[in-house]
């Protein structure tokens, strides 16, 4: 296949060029390539080609919660959102805490055959926080990391052991940072809007003390650690300072933390209920600054699809989470690139290169010899988010009706078109 006349986001530059794909790989990057006999030509004039987007934090819900999402519907949403690789969290039923479940998810992902599905194993058996899960076995079955996502491992000694074992097997712990004794049943950020609405607040400290603990462990043990979905100004600052000291810490945030503040909870719309909660405007601005200055390495969706029955209830009872795969790229492009916070190369780093580096997985760059995992978008097209058009089973988005720039036109995985926009 030949991709002609596209604006291509390369490692450190952006240029208009052609790309030849052969045997699933990028074979040549050069202007004015002449189509060979029988070669498919994709005219991408006016479009921009990114290295295939990688979402290192999604929930696919299978096995166990197929009512909310399954691996097939999640993968369809992923390629529609421009993702060529997704890493899925282990809070399924049964929990992905052993090689059998990990291997099931990996193989089901291959069978679906859309994007690459990389499972993440649990840190403890059943995510109960008591005994370590068999990390070596899960890694051998295809786990690219371990995480207790949905909660933290409260026992610090157990967490230290997990970091040590993970590192012995060449993978990292991805830490959902929440001190449950502090969050204590809260549902929104503690502050003006929790008081206004009468909804129970969650202190920023619930997140920050665990970020601080996990940084302390990484620093003391000289091990790497990755912090999930950073939402607080103080959390960004803890990570910034740790990085400056040379701690091997990396971190991610999600579009909802740079797109929204907690004023939106005044509507009592349960689509704004997410964990960690949407924070105040100063936190939102600090998250943006963290992305700009490199403190926050990656943008992930924390795609958390839920069934209508889990959301169409009173705020206190609703499930936490936002269905994010189909809006992430356009939110990041519109709110970060068009506003001048990040350039296109920096966006590609946060949504493709850095996740690959953090997890030591292939991909993340458009270069000769690399897998032809490519995301092709029209950056000038404005479109309106319509949750009823989501292919994810989870229609739970606070962005319904938003007008955004950046429409995914094609998603290619190993040189094959896995998504093409239908007009
Ligand atoms: O909002 C969230 N939803 N945060 C989490 O930590 C878990 C996730 C889920 O699994 O629904
Ligand atoms: Zn989480
Ligand atoms: Zn999550």
Ordered list of secondary-structure elements with their pairings:
Elements: E1 2-9, E2 14-22, E3 25-30, E4 41-43, E5 48-51, E6 53-58, H1 71-80, E7 83-88, H2 99-112, E8 116-119, H3 135-140, E9 145-147, H4 156-168, E10 172-175, H5 180-183, E11 188-189, H6 192-197, E12 201-202, H7 204-221, E13 225-227, H8 233-245, E14 249-253, H9 255-259, H10 281-293, E15 298-299, H11 308-311, H12 328-337, H13 344-359, E16 374-384, E17 403-413, E18 416-420
Parallel strand pairs: 1-4, 1-5, 6-7, 7-8, 9-10, 10-13, 11-12, 13-14, 14-15
Antiparallel strand pairs: 1-2, 2-3, 5-16, 16-17, 17-18
The structure holds (4S)-2,6-dioxohexahydropyrimidine-4-carboxylic acid and zinc ion (ZN) (2 copies).
One zinc ion binds next to loops.
Could you say which overall geometry the principal axes of the C-alpha atoms support? globular
- The CATH architecture assignment turns out to be Alpha-Beta Barrel
Which structural class do you get from the secondary structure elements? alpha/beta
Q: Kindly, what is the distance between the CA atoms of the first and last residues, rounded to a whole number of angstroms? A: 22 Å
Helix content: 25-40%
Low-confidence stretches: none
The total tally of domains equals 1
Main β-sheet description: 8 strands, mixed
In short:
31% of the residues lie in helices and 22% in strands. With 423 residues, it is α/β, with parallel strands linked by helices.
Report on this model:
Helix content is 31%, strand content 22%. The chain has a single domain, classed as TIM Barrel, CATH 3.20.20.140. Strands 1, 2, 3, 4, 5, 16, 17 and 18 form an eight-stranded mixed beta sheet that branches. Strand 2 and strand 3 form a beta hairpin. It binds (4S)-2,6-dioxohexahydropyrimidine-4-carboxylic acid and zinc ion (2 copies).
């Amino acid at each position: 296949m030949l991709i002609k006349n596209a604006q291509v986001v390369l490692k450190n530059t952006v240029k208009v060029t052609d790309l030849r794909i052969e045997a699933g790989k990028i074979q040549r990057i050069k202007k004015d390539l002449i189509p060979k006999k029988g070669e498919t030509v994709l005219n991408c004039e006016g479009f921009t080609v990114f290295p295939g987007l990688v979402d290192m934090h999604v929930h696919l819900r299978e096995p166990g919660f197929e009512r909310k999402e399954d691996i097939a519907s999640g993968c369809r949403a992923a390629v529609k959102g421009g993702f060529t690789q997704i890493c899925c969290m282990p809070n399924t039923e049964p929990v992905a805490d052993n090689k059998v479940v990990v291997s099931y998810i990996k193989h089901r992902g291959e069978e679906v055959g859309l994007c690459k599905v990389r499972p993440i194993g649990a840190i403890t058996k059943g995510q109960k926080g008591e005994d370590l899960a068999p990390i070596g076995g899960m890694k051998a079955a295809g786990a690219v990391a371990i995480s207790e996502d949905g909660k933290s491992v409260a026992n610090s000694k157990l967490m230290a052991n997990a970091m040590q074992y993970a590192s012995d097997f060449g993978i990292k712990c991805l830490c959902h940072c929440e001190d449950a004794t502090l969050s204590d049943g809260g549902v929104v950020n503690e502050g003006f809007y929790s008081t206004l609405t009468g909804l129970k607040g969650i202190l920023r400290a619930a997140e920050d003390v665990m970020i601080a603990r996990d940084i302390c462990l990484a620093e003391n043990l000289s091990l790497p650690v990755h912090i999930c979905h950073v939402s607080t100004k103080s959390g960004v600052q803890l990570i910034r300072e740790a990085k400056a000291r040379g701690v091997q810490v990396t971190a991610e945030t999600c579009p909802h933390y740079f797109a929204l503040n907690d004023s939106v909870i005044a509507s009592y719309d349960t689509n704004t209920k997410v964990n960690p909660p949407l924070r105040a405007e100063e936190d939102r601005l600090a998250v943006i600054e963290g992305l700009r200055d490199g403190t926050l390495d990656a943008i992930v969706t924390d795609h958390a699809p839920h069934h209508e029955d889990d959301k169409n209830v009173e705020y206190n009872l609703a499930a936490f989470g936002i269905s994010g795969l189909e809006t992430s790229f356009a939110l990041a492009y519109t709110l970060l690139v068009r506003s001048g916070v990040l350039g296109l190369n920096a966006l590609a780093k946060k949504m493709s290169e850095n996740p690959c580096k953090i997890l030591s997985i292939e991909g993340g760059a458009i270069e000769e010899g690399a897998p032809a995992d490519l995301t092709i978008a029209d950056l000038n097209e404005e479109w309106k988010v319509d949750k009823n058009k989501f292919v994810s089973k989870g229609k739970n988005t606070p962005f319904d009706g938003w007008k955004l720039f950046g429409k995914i036109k094609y998603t290619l995985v190993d040189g094959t078109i896995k998504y093409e926009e239908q007009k």
